[in-house]
Design goal:
- The protein has 310 residues and is α/β, with parallel strands linked by helices.
- The protein contains 16 helices and twelve strands.
- Strands 2-1-3-4 form a four-stranded parallel β-sheet, sandwiched between helices. A four-stranded parallel β-sheet has the order 6-5-7-8. Strands 10-9-11-12 form a four-stranded parallel β-sheet, sandwiched between helices.
- Strand 3, helix 4 and strand 4 form a beta-alpha-beta unit.
- The chain is globular, with a radius of gyration of 19 Å.
- The site of 1,3-dihydroxyacetonephosphate has 10 residues, from loops.
Amino acid sequence: MNNIVNSLQKNNLVKEILAWKKRRDAVILAHVYQPGEIQDIADFTGDSLFLSQQAAKTQAKIILFCGVQFMAETASILSPKKIVLLPEINAGCPLADMAPAEKVKSKIKELPEVVVVSYVNSSAAVKSLSDYCCTSANAVQIAQAISAEKDILFLPDMNLANYVAREAKRKIIPWSGFCPTHHLLTKEEVVKMKKLHPQALLLVHPECRPEVCDLADYIGSTRGIINFASNNQVKEFIIGTELGILYPLKKNNPNKIFFSASNNMICPNMKLITLEKVLYSLQNMVFQITVPEEISRKSLIALNRMIEIT
Ligand code: 13P
């Protein structure tokens, strides 16, 4: 009985959201780490790169971003004339917070010759200090576009920096940040899962530790992981990234089996967004994410370089 009531309430909420979305002329973008019911109401779901591309080219007046702050900021930089809404203002990113702009500024002063590449999981202020931006989907490609003569200061994720250094064969000075959700996954957990499921392929995000990546059959962005699993003949996969990704994986591949490498791989910030908050956001036009003009203008240079190369 309770289930029926809940599902009726949910249906009504979804109807209301869709009506408000139309009324506001909004596009809903959702990262694949979002709860399944949020991914279901989105116009576009995907990884950071895909969502920023959608934000840059949308014709809608409002971009409602179901993700975390740096994603909404990026959307605002790429589409400065649009209103960007984030349904939960506290949805931050601890990885981005590990590289405060002031510290980055002094590091750049210490190393004036380096090319600065910042992962999209960084604040707008840090992007504005960078030569290039990148996402996990194109980080290797971006590094390869930079002369091998140059040293690259890569921030804020040290695991991604390590992966890029190996794949792109570039000299990289890593910032010492990490994503707590991905860094949590240990080699021991992965070895145990591989023993339990010997037929399964291991697919991991490059924010995982190097010793975890070393065991993987595929390393890639969330969208890369989804494409790899969907296009592969193999039927079983162990997934080393945030648990939200299991929703589209299972939905799009009903005949395949997906195991999470660890049930602890949950990003609490991504889970702060709910259907109720999405509705409230559209009704009340909150929380509007804006980036100061000077920072936005400078960040756009680094973001546009990324988009051109990709
Ligand atoms: P993607 O670039 O794969 O979307 O990853 C984003 C992210 O925040 C990983 O922690």
